Amino acid sequence: MRRCATITIGDVMKKKISVCENSMVLVYILAMSGGFMDAYSYMCRGEVFANAQTGNILLMAVNLAKGNFVVALRYFAPVMAFIAGVVLAQTVHHIFKGRALHRRQIVILFEAVTLFAAAFIPYELNILCNCIISLACGAQVEAFRKISIRGAYPQSYACATTMCIGNMRTAASSICEYVAHKNRDDLRKGLLLFSINAMFAVGAVAGDLCVTAINQWAVMICAVFMTMAFIIITMEEKEEEKQEEVKTVNFEFETLHTSCTRRKRCRVKQAYIT
Predict the structure, then answer these.
(1) Which of 13, 54, 143, 235 is deepest in the core (most CB within 10 A)?
(2) Do the beta carbons of residue 100 and residue 119 sit within 8 Å?
(3) Confidence of residue 144 (pLDDT cuts 50, 70, 90)
């Protein structure tokens, strides 16, 4: 006699899939913060870029060529701090994988604390302040490599919230693809990435105005942005957990219903054979 296969709840739970989605508000806050941090570090902390490491590497190389080794170190240190931030975000991802707090929450909370602390660093230690800000930027870049906008864009798009060149290239390419093939997804992607760059510019303008008004304390406003982002992420994580619970329950019900139907068919077939 042939037996019907049974499906356990454990088998059902293995089917659970987690999808990380972000709101437009969160993505725009992160982009504004990226522009704000770059403007702050350049205008207030010795003309060093917090995010644009290409610019720092260029200025470091130029000063090395001129023999200005001390000045070159001022640009080299943030580059290494940025790399350390990427490593830190990856380490957090492995440590907190599968736990209550998501790595994005840890990274954003870390950024808020470090940016708040950076405001109290005196101008004589600008190199330390720039390293702290670049560390936070590197962690943010690694933690938010892809975005999926809830309710509007079904795909995950690679993007950056702390720099513009990658977004600009991808956006321009997507617009060209739309012109060639008339695929609305390409148009949405291009406009989304252009809008992220626009918010980066808005953040840079705000950073310059705040530096002019309150000098070194301006970075505290960026810390407030990060706190807002942390609250939004926490709310989104709870909403995702609720949605996943509903999906899991529905999947369990459908799977068990299918299993019971198959069992009945097997019993009827067995009775008929007997």
Answers:
(1) 143
(2) no
(3) confident
Task: Report helix, strand or coil for 163.
Answer: coil
* 3 lies in some domain: no
Q: Which residue has the tokens 């960026």?
A: 222
Which phi and psi (to 5°) does residue 118 adopt? -60, -30
49 domain residue, yes or no:
yes
Task: State the total domains in the chain.
Answer: 1
Owning domain of residue 221: 9-147+154-273
Predicted local confidence at residue 66, as pLDDT:
93
Report the CATH number that the domain containing residue 49 is assigned in CATH: 1.20.1250
Q: Percent of the chain having pLDDT more than 90?
A: 47
Confidence of residue 5 (pLDDT cuts 50, 70, 90): very low
Ranges assigned E (strand) in 102-169 = 146-147, 157-158
Residue 183 domain flag: yes
Q: Cα separation of 274 and 270, whole Å?
A: 6
